[in-house]
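=== Structure Prediction Worksheet ===
Name of assembly: unnamed complex
Input type: mixed (protein and possibly other molecules)
Chain count: two
Listed entries:
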Amino acid sequence: MKFVAVTSCPTGIAHTYMAAESLEKAAKELGVEIKVETEGSVGPENALTPEDIRDADAVIIAAATQVAKDRFRGKPVLEVPIQDAIKDGKAVLQRAMKLERPKADYVTEVEKTKEERSESRSGIYKHLMTGVSYMIPFVVAGGILIAISFAFGIHASEVEGSLAWALNKIGGGTAFALMVPILAGYIAYSIADRPGLAPGMVGGMLSVSLGAGFIGGIVAGFIAGYFTQWLKTVIKLPKSLQGLMPVLVLPLISTAVVGLLMIYVIGKPVAAIMTALTNWLTGMTEANAIILGIILGLMMALDMGGPVNKAAYTFAVGLLGSQVYMPMAAVMAAGMTPPLALALATVIAKNKFTSEELEAGKVAWVLGASFITEGAIPFAAADPFRVIPSIMAGSAVTGALSMAFGCKLMAPHGGIFVFFIPGVITNLPMYILSIVAGTIVSALLLVALKPNLKKTENVAASVSE
Amino acid sequence: MGISEVLRPELMTFDMKAEKKADAIRELAQLIYDHGYVSDLQGLVDAAMAREADYSTGIGMGVGIPHAKSPLVKEAVVAFGRSKKGIEFDSFDGEPVYIVFLIAVPENADKEHLNILSTLSRALMHEEVRGALLKASTPEEVIQAFQSKAD
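=== Predicted Assembly ===
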């Protein structure tokens, strides 16, 4: 057995170390492994790595102070007064050996993976994702309101003063109009902090008015951010005037420069690209639509919420601003199928999954239905070479069918919960069919590829339940 | 830098008079004060007693290890005292202590000193070290008792 422990006392001079020694000595006597992190007056020593914690059977905290327990989530934890560890390290260890592993909380596990991923993002990708995450609420609110306005009849919103007109004005005229400025603004904010926001948002708004859409917005955001950041390093004001930097000097110069660049240099060529892209997407032949659906589907399932998935997602969300709604539908559908397929597979072939996975399967239904592709990660992590190809195949089928049926989606998130808001999805029955088809394809592949678990594992697993 | 850097021969006594915890701490604090490692005797005693109030440093097995961290302390040092009749120390195991270490550490102590103190604390968890300390009658033997574990 393997243990990790943390010892800590108020002054951090003596007891921290005595407790550590006592536990290490006891582990040696009992023939188990232990790694003890001492949080003494010299700071943490022998610090536990995430790998140490992952591999440990249980965690011992022997402390007379507060010890952060977040990192031990999902592990059995034994907390004892530090005196107990000093007095009788052996008894403490023996108690820890008897601890039951807490039932894996699947939702927490998925949440944790998502958190770790967003923390590990860096550089350009991190800035882009910051922008996207601030933009999403505008697109959700805007998209759903527009959809509802259409539910009154396709031309209902043209009657000035009507409710449909009002909803369309709020959603399309305002919330959607803000999406690219927000995207650009928060990309720049992520790079250069507050001074980046103004040039970024102005650049984003110019991008919309110049017809350069979300691609122009992304470009404007990055230029605004890095340019403002650069300005900070080159402009040196006397101390007494430094307060003017973030409120006057930086935003003024960078907004002017970014704005001029957008109008005279970047706007036109990007607008041309954007127009070409939009025209191609709206006038696409069915064969091309299916190919695009397959590509988006494969991307959504490949890394389940990682950079490739987010690239496909950002592309589709950005297009909503240019009234192109089909890729969004394909992307959401293809992002829902991986967890759904795993859930289905655990129902079909109970003998191919561990008891923990069977339990997780139940939660995966909900995660899939909510468009949380990350719900597939724990399965994929345990068996990547069988799981990832299976879910990619199903997502490709779903993406292709959704495109082929011409399904459109006006909201960038929400999974099954936006299905029944009138007008959000067009061709809903076929959309559902696309998701079901992909789910079945992936589930059957999983069942075919995954080996039966050995009898003993199953028995052991069911006994521990 | 070895254990003798903080465990100084002039700060050792092999015949403690005290029979109670507070007196024992005062007796060893006096030793530290007399040799000029702390600027205020009462201040050091108070700091150590305040630490005892959290929970006792009588760790059982006949050992007491009171300690204080205070700006009054000039340099990290350890005073060592042996008692023949035993001292009532409010220990974890309820038994009297025969060995007392009073550790005095300045507010921003040198990292090397703190490391030595942690080695010393760890060594005390081993029976052979405690046994050797109980038999020691000279400063050399006290330092010798740790040397095997510390190096």
